[in-house]
Amino acid sequence: MGKSMEFWDPIETMDRREFERLQLKRLNKTIEFSVKNSRYYKDNIPQGLRNLNSLEDISKLPMMDKDDIRKDQESKPFLGEMLCVPEDDVVYISTSSGSTGMPTASPFTKKDFDVWIDYEARQFYSSGLRKSDRYCHALNLSLFVGGPCVLGAQRIGALSIHAGTMPSERLIKVIEHFRPNFIWTTPSYAWYLGETADKMGFDPAASSIKNIFVAGEPGGSIENTRKRIENLWDAKVFDYYGISDIFGSCAGECVDQNGLHVAEDHMIVEVVDTKTGEHVSEGEKGEMLLTTINKWARPLIRFRTGDIVTYETERCSCGRTSMRLMGIHGRIDDMLIIKGVNVMPSAIEAIIRSHPSLTGEYRIIVDREDHLDRVVVETEHTKKFAGNLSNLEEELKNEIRSKLGISTKVVIYDEETLPRATHKAKRLIDNRKDVWK
Ligand SMILES: [Zn+2]
What we know:
The chain is of the alpha/beta class. An eleven-stranded mixed sheet has the order 4-3-5-6-7-8-9-13-12-11-10. Strand 16 and strand 17 form a beta hairpin. It starts with 15 loop residues before the first helix and ends in a 7-residue tail after the last strand. It binds zinc ion. Zinc ion binds next to loops.
């Protein structure tokens, strides 16, 4: 049986119909609470939609996005009119990472924080973390919502190393000395760290690390990226998903690794067509909307995450009944429209990382010349590569054309020409103006 059928919380295996009744109850409570305690929601939620009869009716409520939060907090600093509790009851804030403009704050009450950490423990437990393990938390600890997730590992009783984002050489020493068997980083960083370790004469595959949690980028959902990180470290990679406006990790893979189980007792997931806003079917790609149903400092209702996902609701082989995200395919903002064809950079990444002659590093540069989109894909060959470079460039170009339907120019450099990513990689450079408007 192993770790597959062990659960942190009985709610994880609750019958789906019963679960949906719980969600509806919590949704109505959230709406009632928000309208009563926040000017913003009072103004935005119509009278007739304040007590819903079914979960499907959620689609009648208005959507909101990051910009709404930013405007709200700018007009009424610093927590805005979405705040539903007295400021005195807020015990923790995280801020959004890496976005442009003013950082927005996500507030938590003491209870919000406590149930969140219990959820993090549940997720870590589902990925196999136990009291006897050692866990290294190598995510930013400063104002970043991924920071406190480490307390979830501590709640399980695992020895928890609050490493944060220390210099890589030092982190490798920490791994060497304290011998954690679990670590959490971004996928780019897991790769970079492995390469750095190698250069320091420390073989990552021979290290104590056997399980790597990754989040923050699509990498963990891209088969070829995952495999290369797994080979580099001789470890298993588990994909996690988090969002700064809600809480750290909201979904993650169990030991059976059939997609990312969502914390559905904390949030309702909708997946919609980006153009029409209509719900898409299971297996189809769409933008994920999240509605919090167990976070009270600042509930979010139909929040547009900007993340493109697919989902399934069938019970997982591990016994858990929650909806699973079957892939985080990237951000809407990163979706390229090349001569009318939609292309996710993650699809180009998948092709590049299937080639053993390439290092896996890449950059996509888009320009518009004479009203035409031109895409240059830059990558690198490995030191061992001894073949004909222009043939390889041609091969890659043809593969991208046949799989994605776009023509590109492919340039292959020597190993270590392209800049190395540390935390969140900037691999897409779009020099066209106003293409997203
Ligand atoms: Zn599962």
